[in-house]
Amino acid sequence: MPSKGSPSSSSSSSYTPYTVTGSGTNSQGNSYDTRSQPSGSAYHYSNSDGSYYYQNGDSSTYHQSASGSATYTAPNGSVYKK
C-alpha cells in the first residue's frame, strides 16, 4: 500500500501531500523514493552520509548536506542558502 505524506508535528505547519510510488536503495547504499504530488512527480534521496535531497513536482529542490548547510531552489530559479 502506498505511503502518504504527513505534516510535521506542529498543527500550524503547511506541507505538500504526496503518495510514495516507489522506493529502493541505489548501488551506493543510499535510499530513495519516488513520489506523486499534486504538482507532479517528485523524488527524495536520503544518503548514507546523512545528507538528503528533494526534488518536488513544482521543480523546486532542497538539499541538506551532512554538515547541516542547506540550499533551496525555488521553482523560479531563485536560490536560498542556510
Please provide a written account of the structure.
The protein has a 7-stranded antiparallel β-sheet, with no helix packed on it. It is flat. The chain contains no helices and 7 strands. Mean pLDDT is 85; it is low at 1-12. It has 82 residues and is mainly beta. The N and C termini lie far apart (36 Å).
Walk me through the topology:
Blueprint: E1 19-25, E2 31-37, E3 40-46, E4 52-55, E5 61-64, E6 70-73, E7 79-81
Antiparallel strand pairs: 1-2, 2-3, 3-4, 4-5, 5-6, 6-7
Structure keywords:
82 residues, 44% strand
Briefly summarize what is shown:
This protein is mainly beta and 82 residues long.
Average pLDDT: 85
Structural class of the secondary elements? mainly beta
The string of secondary-structure elements, in order, is EEEEEEE
How many whole angstroms does the radius of gyration measure?
13 Å
Give the quaternary arrangement of the chains. Answer: single chain
What fraction of residues sit in β-strands? 35-45%
**Morphology:** flat
- How do the strands of the widest beta sheet line up side by side? 1-2-3-4-5-6-7
For the secondary structure, the number of strands is: 7
